[in-house]
Amino acid sequence: MPASTAGSQIRQPASRVWRLRLLAVALAPLLLLAVEVLLRLVGYGYPTRFFLPAKVRGQDALVNNPRYGWRFGSPPLAREPVAFTLPRAKAPGTLRIFVLGESAAMGDPDARFGLSRMLEALLNQRYPRQRFEVVCGAFAAISSHVMAEVADECARHAGDAWVIYAGNNEVVGPFGAGSVFGPQAPPRPLIRASLTLKSTRLGQALGALFDWARPGAAAPTEWKGMETMLREQVGSEDPRMQRVYGHFQENLRAILTAARRAGAKVVLSTMATNLRDCPPFASACGKELPPQQRTEWERAFAEGVSCERAEDWAGAVRAYLEASAMDDGHAELNFRLARCYRQLRLPGEAAERYRAARDADRLRFRADSRINDIIRALAREHAGPHLRLLDAEALFARRGPDGVAGGEYFYEHVHLTPVGNHLLAQAMAEELMALLEWGHSVGAPESSANPSNPDPAAGWASASECLRWLGCTGRNLHDLWSLMLDRCSRPPFTLQLEHTNHLRWLETRRDAYRPATKPAQLRQSVRDLGELVAARPEDPHLRSNLAAHLELAGENVRAEAEWREAIERLPSSWQLWFNLGNLLAGEGRNEEAQRCYARCLALNPWLPEVRARLAALSPRHGR
Known about the structure:
Layout: H1 3-41, E1 51-56, E2 59-64, E3 85-87, E4 94-101, H2 103-106, H3 115-126, E5 131-136, H4 144-154, E6 161-165, H5 188-198, H6 201-213, H7 240-262, E7 265-269, H8 291-309, H9 313-326, H10 331-343, H11 347-360, H12 369-381, E8 387-390, H13 392-399, H14 418-436, H15 463-470, H16 474-487, H17 499-512, H18 519-535, H19 540-552, H20 556-569, H21 574-586, H22 590-603, H23 608-617, H24 619-622
Parallel strand pairs: 4-5, 4-6, 6-7, 7-8
Antiparallel strand pairs: 1-2, 2-3
Helix pairs in contact: 3-14, 3-15, 4-7, 5-6, 7-12, 8-9, 9-10, 10-11, 16-17, 18-19, 19-20, 20-21, 21-22, 22-23
């Protein structure tokens, strides 16, 4: 046989292999696309956009996605955005403002009276002939990784201004060093790739398969608030913290870049935290000491505690400083030292140690000094007529006694009381007005507006005036303080120094509003809320509050009507459907109640309280 023929026979199988490989490469994307289409056709998976298109009262609108948080953690733990309805096309003359952040920006414990709504109240009362749309893009238990995704979508929806108040959850939120939602502090490219994959139904299926197959998964399966993160202590010396700070910087830079591309003005704020009245949640020495030195540290610390109890503040300072000289990374030591300095009327030294105590807290639920430094640095990096920095940390310090913020503005560690929300919202409103140069055009030419300038002497509405505008009644305030009392009665708050004093403080504030729960005051609140609804009938939050008060007053027929009106305007809120279902169940209208509960589960299947109510009415649904 000729050599050339033999060589051809040898090479022929290899060429067929390569043709098959090329065919596989060409067909693989088509196969993956086919699987993706098939999964969508059978209804598998969930939408991953923050804004979902909807028809609301016959108009094209955008509503929140109740399942948005699922892509960033397991569905049982994922939190959801505040319910909203936004016209898809911004009407001429409208000023649209997006608020980005976490639970503090959302307005926890009740977003109806939180930062976004307080900002809305201030702007509407000062400029009553201007139309505002303040959209809360903030929600609980998220981090800047989530916010960067939300910001990308906000950039497509004609926002005139963004307000950014974020940084508390960088360690405990998704992809943080102390996260319970998934991988802890992985590289940012891996995070971006994971989120991109999970935006597909195929990626969601693969993620579910991986979670199912993972042996002995220790991730929690039930959301218990901050208690869920109780075991995730992270020291400032942990090497993962450098990656956390780097992620925050890059994500915040991406958010600011997205705003700039969208032509939106930005108010970027540092984070205010409770320093004076929030002892650390968890403490440990910042470094390993030799056994003898460790014994000396413990002796000095114990001596300081003994002097404190005897109100020997100078003696306590000497003992604590002795311990600090050996290791100053202990959060409780710094907090105790700060209290002693305050008793000795040394506010500068006290403020420094309060900040050190927060920064050394190993349960990192508060933005630390490094986070705020990053925010300030990025404000300088992006400086220009499109951005203003609000230094909320400095603002609250100036307003706090001896230059340290505390319980006058915070329920606990970071969440603002109505007075705190008003202080922050007013400062933000002032920065917004400066950015937008009111008196000149606002936004694009087709949406420009010249607001009616009020009497300059009138100033901004007070906190009490804003609460009245929002329909916040004495009963609402009683319930807010009751909710916080219940929350702070559980870990990790029970781990804090002198925890019982905090509970007594919360009880005192709750009890101050107890008269508002009496029938006569309740009837007055119903009348007041009714007047507000008549004046602003399109506000679903006013209607839902009126409905709740009517139920308490025993006026179920009117309450049902208001629940239904609120749902018509805010159909993406499972909570409204749940409340209506509870009212109907209480009247024995079980089939109607079941339909309401089923609607809740259609919006978000991971609602154990809804499943329990449905099971009580129909055992078939409980299986």
